Amino acid sequence: MPDETLSPAPAASVAEAARASLADVDGVPGAAKHDPILVVDNVVRRFGGMTAVDVDHLEVQRGVITALIGPNGAGKTTFFNLITGFDKPSSAPRLIGGPSSDKAAKWRFDGRSLGSTGAAKVAKQGMVRTFQLTKALSRMTVMDNMLLGARDQPGENIFASVVKPLWSGREREITAKAEELLRRFKLYEKKDDLAGSLSGGQKKLLEMARALMSDPKMIMLDEPMAGVNPALTQSLLGHIQSLRDEGMTVLFVEHDMHMVRHISDWVVVMAEGRVVAEGPPGTVMQDQAVIDAYLGAHHNTDLGDDSLLSDEVAETLAAEIAEEDKKLEEEEKR
């Protein structure tokens, strides 16, 4: 009798199905998704009299790339800090003087409530993030930075650490995984170099690779292109897309509208702390509310139009690319 056990669908087909499911989603703020991995309700953060974040409802679809965009001061990074446990919302439930239960902040990740969970436990649940400013430990080697990102290291236990057989096998597994990721991100030749010697783009790659050491379900990237030489931009884009194609969920903050249009499956727009629009990238970038948020009175402007780049900016980018190409050629000769 033939085995009728169904094998799991390839990650690529799962990712394609996730993207296809967005076609039926209404392009309105707070739109319900077919299979959300993250659901956020009533998240408010105030600093004195200023409200930095005021998100009534937001869902992030599993298995796709979602961009979180908005002008400076829109509250994007603060929102990241809140849902990853690095900050606490002003609307958090409290025993005395807090908001009513229906107005209290709450959010679920992969079906589990994370509303009062610290950053370390959030990461253990499978939601990890990177930062605008890279957090590589400059005086440690690239490899040591990678090893720090791994989970379940028995050698960290003070008692197990004195009995090598208890941790040596796991350490070999972790080292092999780190080497594999460094090869994938083209950093293997730098593994014994100090992390502080890497370029800005290489540090971004290292931070992304280190985040993957914990096998996350969703990775949150805060301005992954900030400070990156244009010569490395395409490499970073490719890595982000490959994460989605492997079945991972990606949520990223970015100001580069050309990147957003190129790789995003869905776009969420924040302005003055609130979600003002969401939908497919091509539609969102022509939304009047989005254009107003970015450009004020400059109407009828496509935010993804390359012609918006001035000649001066274009020349600067070309010069930076040429300089990086020259450095890469010199390294290859050595």
From TrEMBL:
Signal peptide, first to last residue: none
GO cellular component assignments: plasma membrane
SUPFAM superfamilies per the UniProt record, alphabetical: P-loop containing nucleoside triphosphate hydrolases
GO function terms (MF aspect): ATP binding; ATP hydrolysis activity
Transferase in keyword set: no
Alphabetical UniProt keywords: ATP-binding, Nucleotide-binding, Transport
Keyword ATP-binding: yes
Protein name: ABC transporter ATP-binding protein
Organism: Cnuibacter physcomitrellae
Taxonomic placement: Bacteria, Bacillati, Actinomycetota, Actinomycetes, Micrococcales
